[in-house]
Amino acid sequence: MDFDLTDEQRLLADSVNRFVSDRYGDFEKRKAYRAEAKGYAAANWSAMAEMGLLGLPLSEEQGGFGGGPVEALLVMEAIGRGLVVEPYLATVVLGLGLLRRAGGQEDLLAEVAAGGTTLAFAHQERQARHDLHDIATTARQDGDAWVLDGAKGVALHGDSADRLLVSARTAGGRRDRAGIGLFLLDPATPGVTRRGYATQDGLRAAEVVLEGARATLLAADALPLIELVADEAIAALCAEAVGAMETLRDLTVDYLKTRQQFGRPIGEFQALQHRAADMLVATEQARSMAMYAAMMVQGSDPAARATALSAAKALVGRLADQLGKDAIQLHGGIAMTEEYKAGHYFKRLTMLGVLFGDVDHHIRRVVAAGGLPD
Q1: Cα torsion for 121, 124, 130, 133, to the nearest 10°?
Q2: Looking at the domain that runs over 120-221, which CATH code has it been given?
Q3: What b/e readout covers 203-230, taking b as 16+ CB neighbours within 10 angstroms?
Q4: Residue of 255, 222, 266, 273 lying closest to 342 (CA atoms)
Q5: pTM
Q6: Do 291 and 3 meet the contact criterion of CB atoms below 8 Å apart?
Q7: Which CATH number is correct for 7-117, 1.10.540.10, 3.40.50.2020, 1.10.1520.10, 3.30.70.2120?
Q8: CATH 2.40.110.10 occupies which residues in the chain?
Q9: What is the CATH T-level fold of the domain 225-368, as seen in this structure?
Q10: Which of 155, 91, 87, 89 is nearest to 125 (CA)?
């Protein structure tokens, strides 16, 4: 595989890293963004639209960048470095990933790329754990529309999204793979209730209750589409974790160089140098797996793709967890304060570790598949 970036990819990486540095270089700015009405800065979202980041996965004919998993990796790494709070994963990776493949919504795609509309994917249900096919929400046809009943949880940025993409069962039993449709609805539609809340990492999510809510069918038998976009989201999460790990590692090393004990910087103690070296190794291992995920998510075999993405998610999750714990321990008490940013990076890494399946879940998937694809 060729891991060298093209000139366009290098320009993209430079541009998004500069944006994150300018907007998030001062950690106090992040706190101010979180305090805004939607939990993020509208000005930042508009700037991302102007840079073309919101149309990244769209084709040039659709007014987008024509980017793929490698471009997404570059953007998500930068988002991880800055702990960006804007709904990029929810709107671009998940929302656009589903919407553009379902087809028939060209005007809405343009609105999203221009920054005028945000999306959220309401799929997770309480009983399902990490099984994407476990759907109890029902959909029944009523004329040209469909009527949805059920409840969804942890819809990322679902409390402020302008449109919701919702999975619901049109036929079959709760755990059947067939009979799952993908629907589009306006959250202002009668019968939709949203309860928003802050997640542990400072971002936003929502519980969504549907009681006779009317929606538009985007795709019937949509589970393969949902699984593909979920795999793309896993690749994006691995890349974001690498960015966060890299920054948390550098923050820890800087602290070891400045914190004094027994009249000398604690970074001079050999045992702590070994811990810092382990953090470097963990970051580079995670980076390799994130690159592997970006390559494998483009595969045409769904089973091989899913196994590869599970392996990447499991290893990156384990490495991120260990690095985060080491960073907190090496910092000492200061890392547990709300004012210091090390703890916020650890919280985000913890959240990334459970989104779309935790380490144990993905290890079980790899084992069930008989190991990685050849």
Answers
A1: -90
A2: 2.40.110.10
A3: bbbbbbebeebbbebbbeebbebbbbbb
A4: 255
A5: 0.96
A6: yes
A7: 1.10.540.10
A8: 120-221
A9: Butyryl-CoA Dehydrogenase, subunit A; domain 3 (1.20.140)
A10: 155
**Residue corresponding to tokens 């702590």:** 272
Single-letter code of the amino acid located at 254: D
Who's near 25: CB < 8 A, 6+ residues apart? none
pLDDT (tens, 9 = 90+) of the chain, 374 residues, equals 566 899 999 999 999 999 999 999 999 999 999 999 999 999 999 999 999 999 999 988 887 888 999 999 999 999 999 999 999 999 999 999 999 999 889 999 999 999 999 999 999 999 999 999 999 999 999 988 899 999 999 999 999 999 999 999 999 999 999 999 999 999 999 999 999 999 999 999 999 999 999 999 999 999 999 999 999 999 999 999 999 999 999 999 999 999 888 888 888 899 999 999 999 999 999 999 999 999 999 999 999 999 999 999 999 999 999 999 999 999 988 888 888 999 999 999 999 999 999 999 999 999 999 998 77
Structure tokens at 119: 């999306």
